[in-house]
Amino acid sequence: MLPEKREHPKEKPKMHPRNRHRERYNFRQLIGSCPELAQYVRPNVYDDDSIDFFDPEAVKMLNKALLKHYYDLDYWDIPKNYLCPPIPGRADYIHHIADLLGSNNKGEIPTGEKIKCLDVGVGANCIYPLIGNKEYGWSFIGCDIDAVSIVSANKIIELNPFLKGKIELRLQNNARNIFEGIIQKTELVDLTICNPPFHASLADAQSGTLRKLNNLTRTINTKTTLNFGGQGNELWCNGGEESFIKLVVHQSHQFATSCLWFSTLVSKESNLRNAYLELRKAEAVEITTIPMGQGNKTSRIVAWTFQTTEQQKNWMNDRWNKPL
Predict the structure, then answer these.
(1) What share of the chain is helix, strand, coil (3-state, %, to 5)?
(2) Which of 55, 77, 99, 181 would suit a FRET pair with 44, their CA atoms being 20 to 30 Å apart?
(3) What SS3 state is found at 117?
(4) In 125-235, which residue ranges form alpha helices assigned H by DSSP?
(5) pLDDT tens digits for 49-72?
(6) pTM given for the model
């Protein structure tokens, strides 16, 4: 006898209205785009098609199918044990930050390769540039301190010819630097995005994974299985998210005239207060917080600029709205 079936809304109301993943996964369509997914799809306890979200290979194949079906990627892969990102949430960041650019541009979201976005910590998966380029045509710089991630992301670009020349990857040789060594002296960037390492240590990351597994399965697990994977620098850094955001804010001031808007994801609400304190210390001219939600999970984007309203207007006129 099947357990009582829960009623699921047709759409995920907390997600951005333009997010392609607001509806529940249509596995029949996804298998049509990526037949390899079929071997991982089976009825769950409610007799709905699903995958085992505790199986890293199943999760990775689902990502391949989503990227093929919605974003036209013929090839996407990551090295073993590297972070396999939840695509709907990543897409939400891109759409919300696009709205921010539009709100400063008379409500019109700027599109095309003239918009340059820097992804701090692009990862082996290259997910933000893939979505941002597909949805808005933006060009991207992706930087990372991990050479394997750069090689992996470059392979994704090379094997999807429409991405060539639109995403440039740069290795950060100094792990303490965020922008220095990446943004060149005469280079202008319209926007930076960042998904900071969440945990403060490897033990913290493993403990968090165990808590999540125990909550989901209602059993006591003693062994971690990272269904979304992740290397050390992807999951944790000394001081965790709070420390990393402090570093990003502090170093952004040096590039105040090189970038219009800086932004970062802030997963822990308790980290907001110190983020605002650091932004005031850095003398940010304008700060905005954008709430995001997916299911029971809530997070937010914090964005800031060092440019006055007049400077912002001049930037947009010179870079976005000047006739070709």
Answers:
(1) 40, 15, 40
(2) 77
(3) strand
(4) 127-136, 147-158, 202-217, 232-235
(5) 999 999 999 999 999 999 999 999
(6) 0.88
Going through 130-271 in order, the beta strands assigned E by DSSP cover 139-144, 167-171, 189-194, 259-266
The DSSP call for residue 110 is P
d(CA 41, CA 226): 20
Under 8 Å between Cβ of 320 and 312: no
What is the residue whose two structure tokens read 């001031």? 253
Residues 150, 155, 156, CA angle at the centre, nearest 5°? 100
How many angstroms separate the CA atoms of 165 and 132, rounded?
14
143: Cβ contacts below 8 Å, ≥ 6 apart: 118, 119, 120, 121, 122, 169, 170, 171, 172, 182
CA 123 – CA 322 distance, rounded (Å) = 33
- According to the CATH classification, is domain 81-319 in 3.20.20.80? no
How does the average pLDDT of the chain come out, rounded? 88
How many of the other CB atoms lie within 10 Å of CB of 66?
A: 23
111 phi and psi angles, rounded to 5 deg? -130, 170
Longest dimension (CA), the chain: 67
